[in-house]
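Amino acid chain:
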Amino acid sequence: MDFENTIGLETHVQLKTATKMFCSCRLKTGCEPNVNVCPVCLGYPGALPVMNKEAVKLTCMSGMMLGCEINRHATFDRKNYFYPDMAKDYQISENGNPLCIGGGVEIETPGGRKFIRINHIHLEEDAAKINHYAQSSGVDFNRGGTPLMEIVSEPDMSSADEAIAYLTALKEMLVYAGVSDCNLEEGNMRSDVNISIRPVGSAKLGTKVEIKNMNSFKAIHAALEFEARRQRECMAHSIPIVQETRRWDAEAMETASMRSKENAHDYRYFPEPDLVPVELGEDLIESWRKLLPEKPEARRERMANEYGLTGYDAEVLAQAKERADYFEKAAAKAKKPKLLCNFFMSDVMSFFNENGFSAGTEEALAALFNLSTDGKINGPTLKELLPEVLRGEIADPEKAVAERGLGAVSDMAALEAFVEQAIAANPKSVADYKAGKKAAAGFFVGQVMKLSKGKADPKVVGPLVAKRLAAM
């Protein structure tokens, strides 16, 4: 019997706020354990939570980016469980009335575009972090209370590749909206992965297995591939698949059972008595909607049409909002924006990849490029000055060119004189050329560049050299 996968993801995203969800403790990574804590996030008796409005705003903005309906009346609940990472023995979350409902993400698959539905997005507080050492374990409550958005998809994915495509698109949109850094290495984006199998063509879902707290796309892909094989092997040998929570063992490259899977009633949810409902008016929601950026997919299509880009170039440029913004601001001031794109995709992107994002202004980049397209500097000078412009060391490229005497030699008579001088000074190379060593022409181009102190344009010098040698 042939089986198909049904995969759903519960993706937890730490929001980009200055303080925690229900207290004023700052959010900062890399601190000593348990320095950003207070009676609220440590669960002291009598300490009362105060809601972080910015977290509500960012969650709603995320929902708008993903096409969700914003719930005008949202409530918080207590999710009761006993574990060292939750000091008060319950987590404040949303169960019955989450902030965002519906929506989804469109992904590209070998069979065409596919829409992955989102069930809902709810807001909660993150748990503390448990650190394990050789002889002991410790709990760091610096992370405890961080605003955490949980995006729950429908089981619409059928392969590990689709799951990664969904997560990639999700991450891109959330970073674009500025709601989270979505840095997987720092743990501010992680997923619980749910997978089951069913006979091909069946409408009934199989028994679900959950793989907890995955914070690497590579690990998620490998875990889904393994679990799909394991469940098929169970069916082949008439071994029942049980609803359970498993973990991913990266060394053994397999999942391992942790515990039987809890259901919602196991957490004894009840309304949070210390928080009032969130009531959202239309004016407030619309004010947040106006803050949303252009969606990445729409931007890719627009940039491809506007600048004549290939699909690949548009994909790369639009992938990071900050980089795309930088390019478009520079292109708006460039005399030949389509040519700027080619230069940006090669030299500028290469600089960013090696040195990180630039501190230079878009105006300076456009001004430097305009000097090149106007013929005021040559290609080598353009490449020479680019790093200084991108590092913010040159604010006025035209002034820098004048002060350093880097202006291009464009006078044809002067260039022809340089060619004559180079040929006269190197009779042996002339003889080599006449003997069939055509590479000698490149030598003369280099000599002219030296004589012009790098100010000549090699694209102009080459034909002049070739013409003069052919006449000999």
